[in-house]
Amino acid sequence: MLIANDWEQYTLLDSGDGEKLEQWGAIENGLVLARPDPQVLWPKEKPELWDSADGTYIRKEGGGYWEWKNCAPTESTLHYKNLKFIVKPTDFKHMGLFPEQAVNWDWMMKLIQNAKRPIRVLNLFAYTGAATVACLSAGAEVCHVDASKGMTTWAKQNVALNGLEDKPMRYIVDDVLKFVKREIKRGIKYDAVIMDPPPFGRGAQGEVWKIEKMLYPLVNELIHLLSNEPLFFLISSYAGSGFSATVLKNILNSILDSRGIAEGNELCLPIKDSTNLLPAGVCARWTMK
Fold this sequence. Notes:
Elements: E1 2-3, E2 10-16, E3 19-24, E4 31-36, E5 55-60, E6 63-68, E7 76-80, E8 83-87, H1 102-115, E9 120-124, H2 130-137, E10 141-146, H3 149-161, E11 169-173, H4 176-186, E12 192-195, E13 200-202, E14 208-210, H5 211-222, E15 232-238, H6 245-255, E16 260-270, E17 277-288
Parallel strand pairs: 1-16, 4-5, 9-10, 9-12, 10-11, 12-15
Antiparallel strand pairs: 2-3, 3-4, 5-6, 7-8, 13-14, 15-17, 16-17
Helix pairs in contact: 1-2
């Protein structure tokens, strides 16, 4: 179990009855949001806090919408240690950042910094680029791949916010599997792979992605892109994907050779003034022995 407990500008205030109450930003002036979370099957511990929510996401069939006490907020900047990210409410309930992933950012940055050699990272399903920012800040070269032009633009803004726009990197808007196959033909090699695939998605040209059918074949292709000295391979999955950490670990163990070892972990967020944890995702990490 990995717990993202080093945040100073994100706080999970409470959870219960299918929702979570979060504060995005400094404790004295952060944005308080109530968002649905299907895994929250227990009652609220601090029901008196929920009236403080600035916004509540209302789920409906096929999507949802925000209800605001006042006007809808604009984007803001969230700090994590030496990293900075743009966050803002989206129509699909997310904020452009998954706080539970902070434990993986720390892990990747430490490996890259300790490698004492140039590291080339491939970040697939890269979303708004939090992992891209982390790896760039640690000194790696990054190839950032996502099928969404809008999310890639957001990632570029995050990179610029951290003053990393002159670092060596590529942004690719494309279907992940098609891109990977082209890179194999080109003979390109990477020292590390990051991937956070959604349960379902569509590529830049409408290609359909289904994680239960396509994850293993994709990882099987990716071994052809690994360098002779791969540093790490990370697969993350949102809690709602239905996969356990052991499933992801077994995929890596069955495909990658015996030079390394994989471990599976649940990603959790601490709840303020509570002994409970919120399960927010799973991951499997592979590193060289």
